[in-house]
Each structure stands twice: as structure tokens, then as C-alpha cells.
Design a protein that fits this description.
Largest sheet: 6 strands, mixed
Number of strands: 13
Strand order of the largest sheet: 12-7-5-4-1-13
Radius of gyration: 24 Å
């Protein structure tokens, strides 16, 4: 008897193979993303129950677009602040909040909104930093009651950066240029930038005085401002756990829960075009 498969046209076989290949390319990444999201949610619930808190992630990886393979930088933006503020509002007043932070920084307005919302939450607030939380991430960390960071994790300066089409410049450096030059040697654009830089630095100092530890004495607050805002260091200078502890004292711990490291491994594996930077699972008391 003639083989029934030999009667199927080659064109039909190839057409079906292309269809199967297309479905696999479309469905497999979707299934992988869903599996990762479920695994992350499971860890967030586990960590929340262990610590008796609402756990929020604010994680920005240097991600890869799966199709083009191009780097996509992530940072704190207004979408993130909206999501974090929504999560904080959802928490009961007596429920502690933990934020897992991994970010290069971002929009000052968004980071300020998150910092103030955490500062105003009645129950205990903590940030957990497994690797780094620079710039706006540091601003958020300074607003909470407790900082838990890996011994090798880093915070960074929160000195304002002013930018235009040609790049971004530290506000403190702009002010030093104006101080060292005569007024008739400075162009109008630099003078305008210097005035904005002065405002930015003063605003950041005032914000730190508002959000850093309520029980810190004036000398401690001034030391934090000097280290973080004055332009003493470059904007990417790392303050490791021991440095932060020297500034903030017992507010800083280094016992990062193991679940946080497991969670970061799951974020590393995600290669979707747009993974949300903020995730949380609503928790209820009891």
C-alpha cells in the first residue's frame, strides 16, 4: 500500500511547518513571561508573610529587547511613582512596607513622591537593597525607617544634575564655575544654569532635612547633606553598607533575606520588551 504521507504535497508540509514555527516563536516567550511572573508573585507573597509586610519591588535592570537585541535602560519615572503610591495607599495604616530597590535612579519628581509617601506611612518602612540604589533610589532609601543592604551593595550621592541637549552636569560644578570666573567672562546660558543649579541644590538640602531620620540631631543631618549633596564626590560614587552605616547608624542592617536574591535571579531572566518596574501583591492583616 502506498505511504499516505507521500500523497501530501511538499508545499502543504512546509506551510504547516512555518505555521508551527510562528506559533512557537509567539507562544513560548509568552508562556515564559507568565511563568516568571507567577514565580515572582509567589516569592513576594512568601517574603511578605515572613516579614509581616507589604513587599513592593522597584527594580530596573539593563534589559534586552528580545527581537532586536538592543539595550533598554530603565529608571524611576512617573509611571513607577504612580504604581508605588497606589501600593502604599492600598496598605493598612498599621502594616509595615518593604521596598526592594534596584535602580540607577531617575526622575527627581518621581523619586521625591515615593520618598514622601514612605515618610508619611504610619507603620514601619524599610528598603532592601541587594545590589545598588543610586541617585533617586538613594533618596527613597533615606526616607525610610530601616535600610537593609548587602554588604557590597551601594547607595550614591543625590546631588542634582542639570542637563540640556549637550548632556547633564552636576549642579555643584556649575556653581563652582561661576564662583571662579568673573561675571564678564561668563555667558548668559551658564548664568541661567547657575541660578537653576543654586535652586536645585537648596531644594535638595531642604528635602533631605524633611525626610531623613526624625530622631537625628542637627550635626548628623548636616553630615548626611555634606556627603550626599555638596558635590564632594562624583554622581556615581558608591556608598557601601559600611559607609551608610557610619552615616545613619543602627538604621542600617546587612541581613538581606535570601528570598530577595532569589527574586533578583528571576528578574534577570526576563527579556520582555516592557516588564513593569513595580510589582506587589496586596496583603491583608491576619
Amino acid at each position: 500500500m502506498e505511504d499516505v504521507y507521500s500523497q501530501i504535497p511538499v508545499e502543504q508540509i512546509l506551510s504547516n511547518l512555518w505555521l508551527i514555527l510562528f506559533l512557537l516563536l509567539f507562544l513560548v516567550p509568552m508562556v515564559q513571561r507568565n511563568a516568571l511572573q507567577i514565580a515572582r508573585k509567589r516569592l513576594l507573597v512568601k517574603l511578605g508573610k515572613k516579614r509581616g509586610s507589604l513587599v513592593i519591588t522597584l527594580i530596573h535592570r539593563q534589559e534586552v529587547i528580545s527581537f532586536l537585541g538592543l539595550p533598554l535602560a530603565r529608571y524611576i519615572d512617573i509611571d513607577d511613582s504612580e504604581e508605588v503610591l497606589r501600593a502604599i495607599r492600598s496598605a493598612p495604616k498599621d502594616m509595615p512596607i518593604d521596598i526592594i530597590l534596584h535602580t540607577p535612579g531617575g526622575l527627581a519628581l518621581a523619586a521625591t513622591q515615593i520618598a514622601l509617601a514612605l515618610k508619611n506611612h504610619p507603620a514601619r518602612t524599610s528598603v532592601i537593597i541587594p545590589h545598588y540604589a543610586m541617585s533617586g533610589g538613594t533618596l527613597i532609601a533615606l526616607a525610610v525607617d530601616e535600610i537593609i543592604m548587602d554588604p557590597n551593595a551601594a547607595l550614591g550621592p543625590v546631588d542634582p544634575q542639570l542637563g540640556d541637549q549637550t548632556g547633564a552636569y552636576p549642579a555643584t560644578s556649575i556653581l563652582k564655575v561661576v564662583e571662579r570666573k568673573k561675571i564678564d567672562e561668563i555667558d548668559d546660558k551658564t548664568l541661567i544654569l547657575a541660578e537653576e543649579a543654586r535652586k536645585a541644590v537648596e531644594q535638595m538640602k531642604a528635602l533631605l532635612r524633611r525626610i531623613v531620620c526624625s530622631d537625628c540631631d542637627e550635626d548628623t543631618v548636616n553630615r548626611i547633606i555634606e556627603e550626599m549633596v555638596s558635590g564632594k564626590y562624583t554622581h556615581d560614587h558608591p556608598f557601601l553598607a559600611e559607609d551608610v552605616k557610619a552615616l545613619l547608624g543602627d538604621r542600617v542592617r546587612t541581613d538581606v533575606p535570601q528570598e530577595v536574591y532569589e527574586l533578583m535571579a528571576l528578574y534577570r531572566m526576563d527579556i520582555s520588551r516592557r516588564r513593569p518596574g513595580v510589582e506587589y501583591v496586596p496583603m491583608s492583616k491576619g
